[in-house]
Amino acid sequence: MSQVYVVLEERDGRVSRASWEALAAGKKLATGGAVTAVVLGASTEALASEAASRGAASVIRVEHPLLAHYTSDGYTLALQQMIQKLAPPQVVFPHTYQVRDFAPALAARLNEVLISDVVAIGDGPVFTRQLLQGRLAGNYRHHGDGPCLISVQAGAFRADEPAAASTQPAIETFTPQIDASQVRTKPGEPFRGSAQTVDLGSAPLIVSVGRGIKEADNLPVVQELAAALGAELAASRPICDNGWLPMERQVGSSGQTVSPKLYLAVGISGAIQHLVGMKGSQCIVAINKDPDAPIFEVADYGIVGDLFEVVPALTEAIKAAK
């Protein structure tokens, strides 16, 4: 087994996208990139196969009839027993509503601290969290002999594309000892955020506009580009605060977190609150007239220029290519 365990979360019978991002964070944390994926449930064969196909070096199936449906007590007891027996130095979770429900209790039972909502991992390792709605960043190190528990913010790490494994990952089963009397709550429906009429999180292509557009009457310039690409239109917070686009199209710490194949940022300076919502995109293209704009620090491709000149030319080129 590898030294870094990543606990994957199941959604609608499949491993959640946030879990793949956590797996990418685990590979960054692990020396050599080898991680052990952990799946929980009453029957986890399909989840284990899915984890094995995404590059986990090994997989642990934590199985028990009382884990058929999520409960905080069941998950806490099962993971506590697994961690105490197998003693992994580091355990990574996706920072989801479910993890926020049970992970603090798990950390308390292990007499450890949970470093939650991590957005970056540096050498040491050093874990970076955002404070005061992204205005400050704090760096944390784990001290002690027990396991280091961290959860990673959605969109902070790019989920790896599936790749064929050179060898078949080892898959083991761990059966925790859980009694029905220890599970004090009855399973309920999984928490779901309020329905969005626009699901930017599943959009493969996004064109996002910022305050560089200057006024609402100029939005058609960017809307035409989005239409030419077949992309969803999104925005930074100032655009939505001004009522130029609905709030459901906002990307950032107080909006939606996205990770499309292409994120085209038009006239967006790159405030940290916006970056945390989109920096997990597979390819980021930024258009901004300020060469020192923070958006260029996360962009794969940058165009320094006036958006009112660049965007129409880009739109015409895309239309011509079709």
Description:
This protein has 322 residues and is α/β, with parallel strands linked by helices. Helices cover 29% and strands 25% of the residues. The chain is built from 9 helices and 16 strands. It has helices at 17-29, 45-53, 72-86, 97-109, 219-229, 237-241, 272-278, 295-298, 307-321, and strands at residues 4-7, 10-11, 14-15, 35-41, 58-63, 90-94, 114-122, 126-131, 136-140, 148-152, 170-174, 205-209, 232-235, 262-266, 284-288, 301-304. The protein has a 9-stranded mixed sheet, with helices on both faces. Helix 3 (72-86) packs across helix 4. The longest helix has 15 residues, at 72-86. It is elongated, with a radius of gyration of 21 Å. It starts with a strand and ends with a helix. The relative contact order is 0.12.
- Annotation field: number of helices: 9
Low-pLDDT sequence parts? none
Strand coverage percent? 15-25%
Overall 3D form: elongated
Computed over alpha carbons, the radius of gyration is 21 Å
Strand order of the largest sheet: 9-8-7-10-6-1-4-5-11
The percent range for helix content is 25-40%
Mean pLDDT: 90
Order of helices and strands: EEEHEHEHEHEEEEEEHEHEHEHEH
Give the termini distance in whole angstroms. Answer: 50 Å
SSE-based structural type: alpha/beta
Quaternary status: single chain
Question: What structural keywords apply?
Answer:
322 residues; alpha/beta; 5-stranded parallel sheet; elongated
